[in-house]
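Office hours follow-up: a student asked to see two folded examples consecutively, so here they are.
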Amino acid sequence: MDFKDFNHFKATKIKESTLEDILEASRNTYPNEFMALLGGDKKAGVVDEIVIVPATYGREHAIIHTNQVPMDFRIMGSVHSHPSPNAFPSKGDLRTFPRLGEIHFIIAYPFDLNSTRAFDSAGNEIEFEVIE
């Protein structure tokens, strides 16, 4: 999948219902990591869906089976949880981000809005807004 057509940005929006689903999935997968892809309107920079694909979840990793990712031009990036309070990307996350899109959320324990961070594909933290 080629994400080169995606406009680089420093801020994005995520629908509240989508974020709530991500937080719930992160809680339900704890103490393992949760991982999924994010879909939405690329031009508007609005994330509005979680794309669940086959993955392996562990306590210190989550791996998406990229060969089973559908051809979906709405895929914008990824989301995964950290079972610790650290909401910043690991070295492995930084290697994975560019392959999965332009926007990446990390949801850290205790899996709430305050423990949620967004990053661009280079691992730079970016602002996000929760919308209805």
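And the second, which I mentioned at the end of office hours:
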Amino acid sequence: MSLTAPDSPPGNYRGRFAPSPTGPLHFGSLVAAVGSYLDARAHGGEWLVRMEDVDAPRNVPGAAEGILATLEAFGFEWQGEVLWQSQRLEAYQAALAELKSRGLAYGCACSRKEIAEAASHPAVDGGLAYPGTCRAGLPPGRPARAWRLRVPDEDWGCEDRLQGAVIQRLERDVGDFVLRRADGQFAYQLAVVVDDAFQEITDVVRGADLIDSTPRQIWLQHCLGVATPRYAHLPVATNAAGEKLSKQTRAPALDPARGGTELVRALAFLGQQPPAELARAGFPEIWQWARAHWRFEALPRQRAVALSGG
């Protein structure tokens, strides 16, 4: 295993922001968008927008359109058309078929209850490390419910540009992970790897809530023979209880009427030290200041930062 290089050379940068339409954008989403956007601009690169709507049961009607409208209202500009994962199912199926044909993916008959009863320890992301029950074949009379990717008993990971070394012993820390779920939906891990390769993403700047997925994605990239991007995981914003801002923790939706204040607040959260009076400026002035003063080295090198006042 070799760690991915932390450098991001100018002129060879393509980043992306990939929200899921499970609700409106909130301050935590804005932090990720601002960080990825400004890092792309600092490298003279492209910034793409992808709508990660592959998990159809969780999508909220109208949320995707609302997200795009909010990004436009806040002054974000992206290159090319928005990529919709819901229109990419054939690509995910083709990737899964390739992995099946090479014996890297296998059918799994286990229910959640059975996994919970058989698993010996938790996975690094808070779930359960799959115990490999169906690795050698399906139990007699049991059809495949999901499809999993075989992982090696090896260390895989990367040198994160912000967080440092991110390494996992895949078999121990996560186990063989799901590519297609029992309900027929393609899993995030497969979709994100296929789409990053399709869009030729060189740099992934996203929230640290996804950092534990990175070694799995790097192994899957290796299996599919596609390039591994450079990674930088920004600290996630948490409330006073230490919970990540999200729909589940009732994070308020971004209000474009307070856009200047929220944008400057996001810059401050990212360690950029904007002047207080900048919040009274218009979006063009704020973005001009942000691009001119962006300092990657000033980003907090931690996985989470609590917001003052919750």
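Two things to take away from it. The chain has nine helices and twelve strands. The mean pLDDT is 93.
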